Amino acid sequence: MPPLIPVADARRMIVDGLGLLDIEHVPLSKALHRVLAADAVAAVSHPPADVSAMDGYAIRFEDVPTVPLTLEVVGESGAGHPWSGTLGIGQALRIFTGAHVPAGANTIVMQENTKAHGTNGNQVVIVEMPQPARHIRRMGQDFRKGDVGLQAPRRLTARDIGLLAAMNIARVPVARRPRIGVLSTGDEIVMPGESVGHGQIVSANGPGLSAFIEQQGGEAIHLGVARDELEALRAAIARAEPLDMLVTSGGVSVGEHDLMRKALQSDDFRLAFHKIAMRPGKPLLFGRVGKNQKLPVMGLPGNPASAMVCAVLFLGPALARMQGLTGDAPRTIPARLGADLKENDSREDYLRAALSADFVATPFSKQDSGMISSFARADCLIVRPPNAPAILAGASVPVILLQ
Ligand code: AMP
Ligand code: MG
Prior knowledge:
CATH class of the largest domain: Alpha Beta
Strand order of the largest sheet: 8-5-7-6-10-9
CATH topology of the largest domain: Molybdenum Cofactor Biosythetic Enzyme, Chain A
Largest sheet: 6 strands, mixed
Bound molecules: adenosine monophosphate, magnesium ion
Structural class: alpha/beta
Number of domains: 4
């Protein structure tokens, strides 16, 4: 019997053999959730000049030793409409948020501290003592042309997209999306929308894993459902050869109909491991197949909660690695346990749990790996290390947040 290997070892064996695929350039509108492949350098400065942070008046601070005091309004600077003159003694310029501060001015008085005066607002009364150098956003105080705004590698968020846009970067170098074949296996499996005959169930894993892959920046290639027959499995494996990875579900347990490993077996197959000391998800097969053992194959268990927990723990890091990221374990954060837990055996447990707004993680009472609904409803997975002692509600436990 091959040994059960620890979760961390399994992940290392998977990601160590993977690396960044290729780089491509995509328009900013397609860059969300992609991984930035080169440092992003600002093509412009922001703000491009000293600009006002308020609606009000640009003045010379030294012109207003006492208040109230009247200044002559000599013009207007609006956002997108700079005023090109120089402010002289006793003069003020009407100014709006985002507008260039004119030469000669050194502070802004906000509108609320003034009173318009004279005909056509050609005079303004300053009613509060101004402060020096107020309400001015300095040229380049946000970033300067040539600054590295974002460091690669980095999975781009909506906030990052905003920054890239402001840096005047219209096309972004990103890692190519890994192309992952998704194959469901089992005589009982039909795809959603098909008619469900006697003894059949609808595939949760195919669509669920495909969505997970897309969410992690990959491209899921649907390889359909293969029957529990060596020929059908081998044909599907062959179709995956040009891809970056093959992910299968089902057929990796010890039953007579669990044929995945047998179907892979050939001179071109190298098995890395087949069993992991974890729950759910003990049977998980990883290896390489095809010409030069080029195609990584991840054989996930058929039970949906097992398949999806394994996707979070192993497929996510694998996809990250293929996009140039580290492929580290999913991040855990501490939460307070919402119910007592018994001591753990030698397998690492991942308990589906609800997480309250004040970070109390309450494990669901049923942890059956066949339950799809509880996995969908879970907010997090509570991590229980091998041989962890019994703990009481209120203890701190590490949890992995589920998206
Ligand atoms: P297996 O690993 O093939 O022995 O399957 C274990 C359990 O998972 C069985 O109850 C299967 O019916 C179920 N199963 C296998 N594949 C899927 C799938 N794609 N979607 C939902 N359940 C599945
Ligand atoms: Mg099966």
